[in-house]
Specification:
homotetramer, about 325 residues, alpha/beta, Aspartate Aminotransferase, domain 2, Aspartate Aminotransferase, domain 1, three-stranded antiparallel beta sheet, 10 strands, lyase activity (chains A, B, C, D), pyridoxal phosphate (chains A, B, C, D), PyrdxlP-dep_Trfase_major (chains A, B, C, D), Beta-eliminating lyase-related protein (chains A, B, C, D)
Chain lengths: ~325, ~325, ~325, ~325
């Protein structure tokens, strides 16, 4: 029973259908009418003008955004558990040509204005120090926790105060919005986010993430950088089709709600073994090696977060029976 | 009638079927059984052990190969019309961290040992000059022409003599092999090619190219570089599925033969207006502005190569009626 | 008798004296009063506000300037014989993170608006092509020839028309100004030059070149980039001392005049064997292998430019007797 | 009275003399006989074959060494207070094209095998993580403390065990060796160090540091990288002259002993206010803001390390009277 990660779930039928409907030849790269429709689709969704580009991976989305924000001698402030720091093989350093990541703390993998401020205070002034000129937060965080609109806005205010550009890694942005019950804008751009990596792959897509720019000055460089990084696929219409299908009828939100609901069931079963509040589709549970072995013996697949913690991830396709089986098993340990 | 480019053709039905058959969840990235099968599939195809990785674009394939071949202070020798020089927005400079391309001439966008040797002779010796340590040729060339096995081997001998690693950009490798009627190995690795960008997107795939390493020392760095460039997609099984479907029953070769045959029909009609021999699926025809306007008025889409030349590209799905219509129109000008 | 290069000449006594006068401890890096005086000194020299930084080499000066002008996915237009293209081991690619050099022709290693325009016309439009956003010319050129104020201004007008930033590699700027008999401003910034690598090492200095910015927007990034490249030396006062000593009493101009005069004597002797007009301190002479061997046998050191050409370089310290000996020898071949 | 930093001290008379003796023209770059003598001079000093190159700054020396050790997707393990992490504006990221620094702790700015091991254990395995392939320690450390030969050897054993290349930042290597009373080899290469940034600028030089390679495989790439970074100065003989003058008669050791002795006097006066053992030429003293103001009022210049700590640095030219005055003042606070 698969609770390893949402990044291996199947493709949603509506996405399949949209891709196949895109089969007729069209101009290559992003010259097709689906790619051209993305700006409008996301502008409508966020209620403000924005530019949207497809890319094949969250790493590409995040790093193209950062490359548009910092110069090579500058630095990005992020949480010490951020995906860009821990899980992308130094990709930010590649795309930004060596810019540094400056790491702050914060409970549940979320920075606060205070943890950000404290870290920034320790960055020296002068040409021997890389100036921090961008801020990146993850919505939902690596611990499966969500920044409320107020928390996003507080980070945005901090960014403005310090002159930092503001990026949001939204690999699980859908799950965050589903949890918050607010508009996607309230969870991002209304709080000051200037570039958003809006994830679809973990939520029913195949190989397309949307990189959304609310700040128009970042767009042109990114068009070149996307090509230069080999991410301007020639049959881009199939990526645009995936994304537009996810937006249609708020499929992205339905899928995320389903995943969140499954996670909530598991969380309820885990009780006081929970390491973090369960606000999205990830459940971190304190389990001993023996307990984990027993669960695996019973057919559950999941990830060892550290020696004492297991991570269970649900997805749009998590089956109720399997979720209930896991919940029951967790109650039994 | 679409003769603009093969890079916008639809996805072949067998590829669609294979992708959908890959829908069941599997370990992410390249941990799935389809990705794992690629090494064996290509080793069988080429008759020697090789390592195969999927990436989303030819630019990524080419540049990851070059990054495994040269250090940032070195240089790659290629034809002045090569795609890596002219059409990738400096992507080789990005992936290699600034290595130079050193440009040689040669008829029909093909280098010869002589043009390569002449160019190399003009590269200075000493630390003020970037040493050339790799060679890249395009099979079929940007002019739609093909290196025979003997020509590949001659370039390979030159590379060995000069201590150059040897890369082949095979965005249209299938068309080249279909033209030659030889084994894929004879058109590449038997002549000394150490890394091959084997294109599928232009030939019936959706968004998957294969990067083949015949030289095992280049593999490990490339695994990291692929991740670092955002090209290790989490649902990699859908890329592997495309490629394996193309290999099955030599679909790649059938598709290429079909495209080549269509190009041959057009070429026959173009007669002595042909700029280059037609050996793959591209037809370069001397046409005045007026003649081109007339053809466009008649419904034909194609690319203006330069002021006096139109380029017509066929694909696996070129329809016989449309090809005949174009042939007839060309005879009429 | 040394006519190999001016880059190995001794240090001028006035420079030695100024360095030793700088021995008293002062704040490190460029916090000392000599470094602080550079902006004013060059602003006075050029008759307009400018920012001046010392660096240790012409390569560093050139490449820091280019790094302030182009983004990694852009390109610099320069002559195909430019030092940045041929003699710096790809340093521009290092400092700019992979930006390309686009090469134009032109007699005597000088571009003209026409050669520049022709080359630019062949650069494609769209994200697959690196946009050219900077222009770099060499004053005096690699052939020892000089852009007149009118020629500089014509290139500057071209740069403005095309939206290009404008850099001048002035490794031998002093020799050019000495030849022109105009103000240094007329030979550079009055014609639109925005950043000038003003060479002193070849003209009596030890290890200090001045990087002059007439465009204030390039300064801040360069302060960081200089540090980041290891070029912010801690005892920077010794570099500033060299440069200020060269400016004092127009020593830079006197030294260049002396070198130019020596070159003119040699040029007169070379007669119609001259390959290029002799306008600075380099003399290119058609000489057969045998003739060159004979000259070397007679004690003259010089550089083989190509199989049929010898290059003789004079310097501030060229001795009259040696110059006359060379002139006599050349008359005798 | 100057206790701000040793990086602004004057040039030693013997160094001046050697530079002036190098005035006669010689082949440029490192083609002169002084540069050529460096390998032998350092091989004799260290009792084993090594290659030595001059560069203008410690940042350049450190980063060229790291660039020879790691690929762009790899990482360097160093102390969290290391100069390469805190004071070089991200220069390691520039020279290595984005490699990361992975930070370990340890008292007195010294790593131990245990702190290194603990940190390494937290680095994940797999292509999403940058593999650590090099280790860099600072001798003497940023806290003015020294690794004993045994401690260096322990770090070297750790590096070998983990397959890490081993770099030593020796900006104050002379002070460390003077403290240890051992051979320079015992303080570095005998313990496994493969590349050493051997500092001279802080110890009586002007603008020349030596980069020493005990591992021959790193040399060739570095020759190119030095040129490419603009650090191959054309009048390199003046840099070689400085270094050779410092080696002659062990001037480097005499100068360091003098600086260390001055620091010891100050340390004795600081008593239990010392933050770190004083083993080289830096004295860290707990002093309140008021106490520091009083000292400054009395004419002492020094650096505020943090809110509660002042740093006093001595140099080869520290004057006995000034040192005694400071010692007396510290006893009085």
């Amino acid at each position: 029973m698969p609770f390893m990660s949402d990044n291996a779930a199947p493709v949603h039928p509506a996405v399949w259908a949209a891709m196949q409907a895109a089969d007729a030849p069209q101009p290559p790269y992003d010259g097709d009418n689906l790619s051209a429709a993305m700006d409008d689709a996301f502008s409508a969704l966020f209620g403000r003008p924005c530019a949207a580009m497809w890319v094949a991976s969250g790493t590409a989305a995040n790093c193209l955004a950062l490359a548009a924000m910092v110069r090579p001698y500058e630095a990005v402030l992020c949480h010490e558990l951020a995906h860009i720091e821990r899980d992308e093989c130094g990709a930010p350093g590649f795309f930004t040509h060596g810019a540094k990541l400056v790491l702050a703390g914060g409970d549940h993998a979320k920075m606060t204005p205070q943890t950000a401020r404290d870290r920034l205070a320790r960055v020296g002034v002068g040409v021997e120090h890389t100036p921090v000129t961008a801020l990146s937060i993850t919505q939902a965080s690596e611990a499966g926790c969500v920044y409320s609109p107020g928390e996003v806005a507080a980070m945005g205010a901090f960014a403005r105060e310090k002159g930092l550009r503001f990026h949001m890694d939204g690999a699980r942005f859908a799950n965050a919005v589903a949890h918050l019950g607010c508009s996607p804008a309230a969870a991002s751009c209304e709080g000051g986010v200037e570039a958003l990596s809006f994830g679809f792959v973990k939520n029913g897509g195949m190989g397309a993430e949307a990189l959304i720019f609310f700040a128009p000055d970042m767009v042109e460089a990114t068009r070149y950088n996307r090509k230069r990084a080999g991410h301007l696929q020639s049959k881009g219409r199939y990526l645009a089709a995936q994304i537009l299908a996810m937006l249609k009828g708020d499929l992205w939100l339905d899928n995320a709600r389903r995943a969140n609901a499954a996670a909530a069931e598991i969380a309820a079963a885990a009780g006081d073994r929970l390491i973090h509040p369960v606000e999205a589709n990830e459940v971190f549970v304190a389990l001993s090696a023996g307990e984990r072995a027993a669960l695996r013996g019973a057919g559950f697949a999941f990830y060892d977060w550290d020696e004492a913690t297991a991570r269970f991830v649900t997805a749009w396709n998590s089956e109720e029976a399997e979720v209930m089986a896991l919940a029951k098993a967790l109650r039994g340990v």
